[in-house]
């Protein structure tokens, strides 16, 4: 790779640097500015989902001395946010808390059929049914089992398993899941199983702290982030993604910028600009005509001849050579489209170039590994080659930062409204500041890339030592520059509007946080064993069966 | 799958109380109970007073566990009813439907909607705008629409009166008799001849 050291990096040239190399030893990656988020990022598999849910259920059951199904109704309503639930409890009291969630007073749910006359009229089917064939919900409303079952089936098929209301008009009570399960499984066991799964998955789908891994095909895992939800995570399946928008990790680009950029790259909005610059509509048939020769008398396929300068018909009376004031306007529109197109091409080329480099460099990983293995086998001295892999890792990391910094700049300094209150001169200053940072980073990244491509396996020992120092030093410089670029973006550019919250995931020296396995107190030993290591990602077990859910989790008393 | 026994019972219940509620539900054809026509009188004291509004009712297979589909067949000027299609914006016909409700209670709710428009949750934005910004014009238009589209039978009455008067019966007697037989021309003639 070409050594791209420009003039920009003079004062950060690693060769002039007097920093202590030992400080950036092979393990320098461990020294992160920020405490890693790792402990707060958990991966939830099919097997741990139930345990994860029960952690929260248990808290609520203990605080309010509730049964599991009632605790679940509450948690589904409050979107699994135990803090919110407790806040409502403290501020509004138990009755209000229950009423909001559609939980009836849970005291009188021990329904005794003897209290009813022997025949009961069900107002839904308008039939008289024996009292043993009716079910009373916690809210006190009583209908026949057949009608209840029908109601539940309709609601489950509508995808409303998590909030099935009582059949009585204007009754907001949520039906007891235990009663639903008993009635539905008698008619349709498969649907009852589906119902259970919907309730289980509520923990993921109704919970802002948990999201499905967006991998395709889906790995079956979900990720839970306990503190800062604005972050980038890596699932055990290897998928890296932005936890906020679920697309690929894209910082320092914000989610909105990234969404716009992807759309822009995908659709042909620039084709429109190209057509504006390079074609003109025929004054007769209005089709777009591209000029393919020098002559400015253009003929459309409809045989109409028109003037390329003014776009008007070449009939008698055509005289666009004469100067008229308003024609200037047409040119400005074309000029603007041209400038905008060139600007987009500029940023897109650089963004793409870094992505392409990243692809090529990922091949280096294997080459370097081979070289190291060869060296370790042939040379007896015990040299640690971790600095090479660390350097390579730093290269990958910073390539991504660099490539995403271009779409960021495209929006930040363009006219898309990301800088609306910034004065022109202010914007220019900030832009050149940002670009200085970006260029320094770019120069050093290219330098590192070029060094890592060297054939260090054929080097003499002092050459290897020199390379090691270079790589370690460059890695440190690059890490520092990345950090500074994020600071510049966070503080000077995005932080410019004081009312906006920071909208990019923070820079992590160690790269995207890997989710760790969720281990719950009440998990059975067999579960923990099953889920250890890489097995968890390729686990093909079915969902926890209805039977297990029933016996283990839902029966009580 | 549909509970026809219940629908049958509902129709019977409803016909018992036509005098009281003014609400009528009849099958559209003899072939099926899934397609019905409901009739509601315009509420007194509203621009709909004096009109008779027909509502097309389609019962889904899941009825009464799924809400009936209702749509005005008579054109009506109301913020929550489409002036084009007759579609009704009413919560109990959507997510607030309960299997314990009936066609009659649903039609009563539709009638209540005529009395109490909810322009903040409009079905027809044009009507809702007019309701909020120019209430007098709204009342005028709604009344005009009632006169034009919901009183077709009343125009018929005048024709029947004229026909019977031409036969030689006094006008006051003709009107009284027609009213007593519910507007049926032949029954009125029979009664006039026999009386």
TrEMBL record, chain A:
Cofactor(s) it depends on: Zn(2+)
InterPro entries noted in UniProt: Ariadne, ARIH1-like_UBL, E3_UB_ligase_RBR, IBR_dom, TRIAD_supradom, Znf_RING, Znf_RING/FYVE/PHD
Keywords from the UniProt entry: Ligase, Metal-binding, Repeat, Transferase, Ubl conjugation pathway, Zinc, Zinc-finger
Domain RING-type: 118-324, 122-170
SMART domains xref list: IBR
Superkingdom classification of source: Eukaryota
Keyword Nucleus assigned: no
Biological-process GO terms, alphabetical: protein ubiquitination
One GO MF term attached to the UniProt entry: ubiquitin protein ligase activity
This protein's pathway: Protein modification; protein ubiquitination
PROSITE patterns, per the entry: TRIAD, ZF_RING_2
Cell membrane is among the record's keywords: no
Matches recorded under SUPFAM superfamilies: RING/U-box (SSF57850)
Catalytic activity, as annotated: [E2 ubiquitin-conjugating enzyme]-S-ubiquitinyl-L-cysteine + [acceptor protein]-L-lysine = [E2 ubiquitin-conjugating enzyme]-L-cysteine + [acceptor protein]-N(6)-ubiquitinyl-L-lysine
Enzyme class, spelled out: transferase
EC numbers on record: 2.3.2.31
Family stated for the protein in its record: Belongs to the RBR family. Ariadne subfamily.
Function recorded in the entry: Might act as an E3 ubiquitin-protein ligase, or as part of E3 complex, which accepts ubiquitin from specific E2 ubiquitin-conjugating enzymes and then transfers it to substrates.
Name of protein: RBR-type E3 ubiquitin transferase
Organism field: Parasponia andersonii
UniProtKB/TrEMBL annotation, chain B:
InterPro entries: UBA, UBA-like_sf, UBC, UBC27_UBA, UBQ-conjugating_AS, UBQ-conjugating_enzyme/RWD
An example Gene Ontology molecular-function term: ubiquitin conjugating enzyme activity
E.C. numbers: 2.3.2.23
CDD domains with a match to the protein in the record: UBA_II_E2_UBC27_like, UBCc_UBE2K
Domain (UBC core) ranges: 2-151
Keywords (A to Z) from UniProt: ATP-binding, Nucleotide-binding, Transferase, Ubl conjugation pathway
Keyword Nucleotide-binding: yes
Active-site residues, record numbering mapped to chain: 89 (glycyl thioester intermediate)
SUPFAM superfamilies hit by this protein: UBA-like (SSF46934), UBC-like (SSF54495)
Domain of life of the organism encoding this protein: Eukaryota
Domain UBA: 156-195
Gene3D superfamilies xref list: DNA helicase RuvA subunit, C-terminal domain, Ubiquitin Conjugating Enzyme
Family in the record: Belongs to the ubiquitin-conjugating enzyme family.
PANTHER family: UBIQUITIN-CONJUGATING ENZYME E2
Name of this chain's protein: E2 ubiquitin-conjugating enzyme
Organism classification: Eukaryota, Viridiplantae, Streptophyta, Embryophyta, Tracheophyta
